[in-house]
Structure formats: structure tokens, C-alpha cells
Write a structure and sequence with these properties.
19 helices; five-stranded antiparallel β-sheet; 27 strands
Length: 608
């Protein structure tokens, strides 16, 4: 299965979309005038030949504009379940938290005039299963109550405290059953139920869902049918024109008359468009300080919001010698995080305090001062790194390190080519490792989908990875000890799949247990899963969460499955020459696409 939640939509540029460079792009003609909103979507660079299908990895659709969800995350670190209404007008959670009843907006309609119904939602939910979106949240069944009401129920025996957000928030996109329903077999829900069990039958059912998911993702609709504020009117390799969906439930709030979405092939192109004043809004884009000055000089306004995500270097511990604790710890001592962040993410990042699995500013939410002071900071120290390697049987000859098997040790750091911050940071790490005596090279993947596919298959021993994804402790550690390490909830149980199994992209391959000095033996995968079962509405539950988080932070800090490099700051840009009423100071909105801003009454043409 694919794991569409691996990258948050505002975390970085185009982590869900392809980056193929396109040439010979002709220009579409928008209607013109002050009402045309020009932007770039970080998740959709526009890929020639890609379908208008939100479940395709190179989809030519635009979340928040022509793709809608039941709700949108409020990005509240203190409450990961807090959700802003989307297609759902309201919802209620049962007293035990095991059933979620959702009431759709009465006026919600597709751009073809048909109403958005509970059957659309149930069909969409079946697709969520095929894409691996909802298994981590223990969704067990979906029941249509009436045309405007649908009930989601957890798997028998489950009490997942992230169930509410897991169902309501992206990437659980809602699509029309009339178009996507024929892609699903009549017995799809029996297959889903079987996949939630145990044994060979569950494994077969999971494989069947994966196969169905590939078929769904490859589907190319003839035309865009949208439940959002806009619908794609025409698209080519250079840009897309989206016009207002006259049937949208909040059409009166939408300020722009049209949206012109531009193609991009990398960060440099976004810089150029901002410098030329072409964009009304631009997403988070890594850039050096000199480019920032040029962008601001062109009349763009910088808008900052918290970003619950960090960049890291990740290791496949099934690949020798990265399964050796001393190796990972030694490399953490070699890297100078300040130098890496200064070059890689000078504008939109701060050096991570140390490797913990959560952003540094959140450590105080989970650790006592004593626990925080006990963390190993891995301050740059080549002598300590050398002692660790020597203790593990490595030797240095002629300035180069040799592995215990006698072979010279070299490292290849893998990076997607379009991420200029990661490419720049990798060059610094290359220099640091090489100077230490480990000849290192940097290998660039052609684009994000290629990189994600390769790392998921276990092709990379060392690569870049986003971690600490918030909000919430489970979301943060699920990025390390979730599907990326083979762990996928199945019904009320947690399953772990080996590398190469289609049910999970296990490319970390960490040991099941870690022996942490002063703490004892812990199982990070099980601890992460336990975070979903505590009652966050009670003092006892909050105390349990802090206890589990403290163990996970300590285990991650000691075992170093990743080396945390920097924590991000969500820096966006708006140009007020043509539009005004930006959601400045509204952190929830600023972590969502501008199409959602418009739904909530933000972004209006500047009066002439």
C-alpha cells in the first residue's frame, strides 16, 4: 500500500508530487482582471499526462481548491484531533470514542450539480483503505445512516485516540461514488473486513487491497468533478485554470473569480516567480538568505507560522554496518548540525537540539527538566566518534576508516534532486564525513515519487527523511516507528511486516527492542502504538502519554535510528498588490492551502 500521510502538505515543497521537468509549455488564457489568483501548489507541480485523481502520486489536482476532505487539521500541538469543518458540517464522537457520526453540509454539491452524499463518503472510505490511509487509526466499518449522515466505527477491541482526526483530516479525500465506485469490486467491504483479521487470510486480503489501490491510483477521470470552491476548466503542461464551482456550499465567500496554478520544476522556479511578482501566494520554499532579500524586495510579504516537522538523516539498519549502534552514534557526533542548518535551511529552520523524534520546542511538553538534561546532545566531537567506531571493530588506516570485515567504508547520501535545502545540507554532511575519514558521495533521485518509491523498497542505506510530524506524539513517532519500520495496525492488533512486504514500506528495519541505559528494554513500535490507546481527556491518560513519550524520546536519543538535523519554520509569502485579507496570525489556516483560506472568507481582490 502507499502511505499518503507520510508527508504533511505544508511540510515541504512537492513531497507528494512528481518533479518531472517539462518543456515546450504553451500558456493557457485566464479571464484576466483583479479576480484571478495566481499561485503554485506545493503538492502539485503539474505533471504532463498525470490524471486528475487525488490518489495518484503525480496527481493534477489541487487540495483545498478542487479536492475536499471532511475536515482540515487545526495543527494544534495540544490537541491533534482539533479539526476545522470541511465537507462535514458537524460530527460527534461516542462516549467511548469508538464511533464517529458525521453530518455532511446540507448544501454540499459536486461541480456537476449532484449532491455530496453519505454514499460518496463510504465509497471514498473504501479507497482510503486501498491507499493505506486509515489502517493506523483502526477504522473498522463505515455505515450510511441517511443521505447526509455516515458513521465510522473502530475495529472491534480498538480504542484509538487519533480516530477522530484519522477519519476527518486529509489525505482522506472525498470523491464522487458515481465516478470512482465502478473501480471497486462488489465485495470490497468483505475484503476490508478480512484484512483487519489475522493469519494468511488477512495477508491475502491486504494484498488484494494493495492491488485495488494501484488500479484506483492509476485511474484517469475524463473531467474534473469537484466538491471544492473551484473546478479545473483546462490544464496543460505549464499551468491550470480553475474556475469557481457555482455549486460550492460556500461560493459566496470565495473572493477570486479564477485561480491560475503555475507549473514548477523546483525551488529556483518558485523564487523566480516571486521575484517577478507573478505569484499572489507562494508556499513554503527552502531558500538562502540572499534569495529571501530579493523576494522581499519584489513586494512579497513573509508570513511565519509554527511547523511541527524536522529534517533528519535516516538509516536502513538491515544494511551493514548501519545496524550497529556505535556506527549511528558515531555519525551523530561527526555531524555539525549548526553548519548543516546554516547552509541547508538558513531561512526556514533552526538547528535541532539533539535527536529525539520530536521538535526541540516540544520537549518541555513531555520531559521533566531532569529528563531533558539527561539527553545526549551529540555535540560535534570527532574523538568520541573515533572511540565508538574503534570499540565496534572499525580501524583507520591512512586517514580512511575500514569496516570490521576489512572493507573500506564509504557512504552514499541519497536525496531527491528538487529539494534544494536537502541537496545543500547533504553537501555539508558529505564534506564532514569525508574529512572524518569516510569517503562520502551524494546521489540525487530524479524526483520525489522516485525517491519515495526507492526508499520504500529499501534501496537506500542512508537518506533524508522528515520526522517529528505533528501535531501529537503518535503522529511524531509514527513517522519513525510506524509503516517506515514495518508497523501497521490491523484491527485491534499491531502487525509488523518485514522489508519487501507490500503492506508496509519497512526501510528502517530497527530491532524490535532497544536496551536503554537507566531505562531498561523498550519496544518503540509497541510504545508508539500505545500512544493511540491512552485517554487524552483524563489526567491519568495525559500522564500515561507523557510517560510513554519520555521513553520513546530516550530510546530514540540513545539508539539514533535517525540523526535529527533541523526543525522547520513554516515560512510562506503573499503579495498584496492584487489581493488582501490574508490569514496573518491564524496558525491553523496558515498550515492549510489558500483554497481553504478562501472557504473561510480570507483572500479578496484589492479594490481598484
Amino acid at each position: 500500500m502507499t502511505h499518503g500521510r507520510a508527508w504533511p502538505m505544508t511540510a515541504r515543497v512537492a513531497l507528494l508530487a512528481g518533479m518531472a521537468a517539462l518543456s515546450g509549455c504553451s500558456s493557457l488564457t485566464a479571464s484576466g482582471g483583479a479576480g484571478v489568483f495566481t499561485a503554485i501548489d506545493e503538492t502539485t507541480p503539474i505533471t504532463i499526462g498525470a490524471p486528475m485523481n487525488p490518489f495518484n502520486t503525480t496527481s493534477n489536482t489541487f487540495v483545498g481548491y478542487d479536492v475536499e476532505a471532511l475536515g482540515w487539521t487545526a495543527n494544534n500541538p495540544a490537541n491533534s484531533n482539533q479539526t476545522l469543518p470541511g465537507l462535514a458540517a458537524s460530527w460527534s464522537l461516542s462516549s467511548g470514542g469508538t464511533a464517529l457520526t458525521v453530518h455532511l453540509r446540507p448544501g454540499a454539491r459536486w461541480s456537476n450539480g449532484q449532491p455530496v452524499t453519505a454514499n460518496d463518503v463510504k465509497t471514498s472510505a473504501a479507497i482510503w483503505y486501498t491507499q493505506g490511509y486509515v489502517q493506523p487509526y483502526n477504522l473498522g466499518a463505515v455505515t450510511v445512516i441517511n443521505s447526509g449522515t455516515v458513521r465510522f466505527t473502530q475495529s472491534r477491541g480498538s480504542r484509538n485516540n487519533q480516530f477522530e482526526s484519522g477519519v476527518l483530516q486529509p489525505a482522506d479525500y472525498v470523491v464522487p461514488a458515481s465516478i470512482y465506485g465502478p473501480l471497486l469490486p462488489a465485495a470490497i467491504w468483505r475484503t476490508i473486513a478480512a484484512s483487519l483479521g489475522t493469519g494468511p487470510s488477512a495477508t491475502r486480503a491486504a494484498s488484494q487491497l494493495t492491488a485495488i489501490g494501484k488500479k484506483v491510483a492509476a485511474f484517469s477521470p475524463r473531467a474534473d468533478v469537484s466538491a471544492g470552491p473551484f473546478v479545473i476548466e483546462r490544464i496543460n503542461a505549464g499551468e491550470a485554470v480553475l474556475v469557481k464551482n457555482k455549486y460550492f456550499y460556500a461560493a459566496r465567500r470565495i473572493g477570486p473569480s479564477e485561480v491560475l496554478m503555475l507549473h514548477y520544476s523546483g525551488n529556483q522556479q518558485i523564487w523566480s516567480d516571486m521575484q517577478a511578482g507573478r505569484l499572489d501566494a507562494a508556499p513554503y520554499t527552502a531558500m538562502p538568505a540572499n534569495v529571501l532579500k530579493q523576494v522581499l524586495a519584489a513586494g512579497n510579504r513573509r508570513i511565519d507560522a509554527p511547523s511541527l516537522v524536522a529534517a533528519s538523516l535516516v538509516f536502513d539498519q538491515a544494511r551493514y554496518p548501519y545496524g550497529m549502534l556505535a556506527v549511528r552514534q558515531a555519525l551523530a557526533y561527526v555531524i555539525n548540525r549548526d553548519a548543516v542548518q546554516k547552509v541547508g535551511e538558513a531561512v526556514s529552520g533552526v538547528p535541532s537540539k539533539t535527536t529525539t523524534g520530536v521538535i526541540s520546542s516540544a520537549l518541555g511538553d513531555y520531559l521533566t527538566p531532569g529528563q531533558a538534561s539527561a539527553l545526549n546532545l551529540y555535540a560535534t566531537n570527532d574523538a568520541t566518534a573515533a572511540r565508538l567506531l574503534a570499540s565496534a571493530g572499525f580501524s583507520r588506516k591512512g586517514g580512511q576508516w575500514y569496516r570490521p570485515d576489512g572493507q573500506p567504508w564509504t557512504i552514499t547520501v541519497n536525496v531527491p534532486s528538487s529539494f534544494s535545502d536537502w541537496v545543500a545540507a547533504a553537501s555539508v554532511i558529505k564534506s564532514e564525513f569525508t574529512a572524518f575519514g569516510i569517503p562520502t558521495s551524494v546521489k540525487l533521485a530524479a524526483d520525489s515519487p522516485t525517491y519515495m518509491a526507492n526508499i520504500g523498497k529499501g534501496d537506500y542505506a542512508v537518506g533524508f527523511w522528515l520526522i517529528a510530524l505533528g501535531p501529537g506524539g503518535y503522529s511524531a513517532f509514527n513517522q519513525i516507528y510506524g509503516a517506515s519500520d514495518g508497523y501497521v495496525p490491523g484491527g485491534a492488533a499491531l502487525k509488523r511486516y518485514p522489508a519487501g512486504n507490500a503492506a508496509a514500506d519497512n526501510f528502517i528495519n530497527a530491532p524490535a527492542t532497544v536496551s536503554v541505559p537507566g531505562l531498561g528494554t523498550v519496544n518503540p513500535g509497541q510504545l508508539t502504538y500505545q500512544l493511540t490507546n491512552v485517554d487524552l481527556n483524563s489526567k491519568v491518560g495525559v500522564s500515561q502519554e507523557k510517560s510513554i513519550m519520555a521513553k520513546l524520546i530516550a530510546a530514540t536519543n540513545y539508539s539514533v535510528p535517525v540523526i535529527q538535523l533541523w526543525d522547520y519554520v513554516n515560512v510562506q509569502f503573499a503579495n498584496s498588490k492584487r489581493f488582501t485579507r490574508w490569514p496573518v496570525g491564524n496558525d491553523a489556516q496558515l498550515n492549510l492551502p489558500p483554497g481553504v483560506w478562501m472557504t473561510y472568507g480570507f483572500v479578496h481582490p484589492r479594490p481598484r
